[in-house]
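Journal club side-thread
Mid-discussion, someone asked how the predicted structure for our own chain would compare to the paper's figures. Pasting it here so we can look after the session.
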Amino acid sequence: MSVTTRDVRAFKQRGERFVMLTAYDFPTAQILDQAGIPVILVGDSVGNNILGYDTTVPVTMEEMLHHTRAVARGAKNALIVGDMPFLSYQVSVEDGIRNAGRFLKEGGAHAVKLEGPVTELAHALVDRGIPVMGHLGLTPQSVHAMGGYRVQGRTDEDANRLMVEAEALAKAGVFAVVLEGVPSEVARRITEASDVPTIGIGAGPRCDAQVLVITDLLGLGAGSYPKFVKPSADLRGEIPRAVTAFRDDVVAGVFPDEEHSYH
């Protein structure tokens, strides 16, 4: 049976920790779905992890819809959340409603994610039957305004602001809130005070759930990883070994052999 937003809320009510992972294509979505991952985020992180952009800011609606459709074709059980890209909802509530609707109508998503304390839009979307996931703390679409990828909520004033914003989003009807780049103690306070699940990324162990970018989890990144990432594999090292072995077999004339040829 497919996971719904009601199921996600029920995870918190039962005290059941869960996982969300990003996916950007059909085979990855299929693998995550078969592994029982309940929530798949088609993140605008596709920009800097798949499309080669420096940040998530250049990602367009058409790019997001393209990748969301691929994920929707691969995942049959997971709740699919489409990440609304920069300027697809910041200009006006009307723009936000229109573009959020496209994720469900054209992309095959079940819900959308919004960055920041956009409570008016969240309420408007929920009123129209479009489930919303919030996102507070380090919001990558605001990287230039923040002066880089900086942990948020380190002062009492900022921590209290995040508490207020999380409460406002919950009242607006969001079914979950991502907390990114937030001190562990602040995330704990928000989680304990909130009726909706919190999903942490760089927010410590006290959130109701955890999310990672799939390329980070699989060790596909180049260079160093953020402090909160613990790769579970080293595909960045494994893929070159496989490619090199294939090249060597072809150059040596041992592939294809009789077993791998048609007769």
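Post-session note: The two ends are 45 Å apart (CA to CA).
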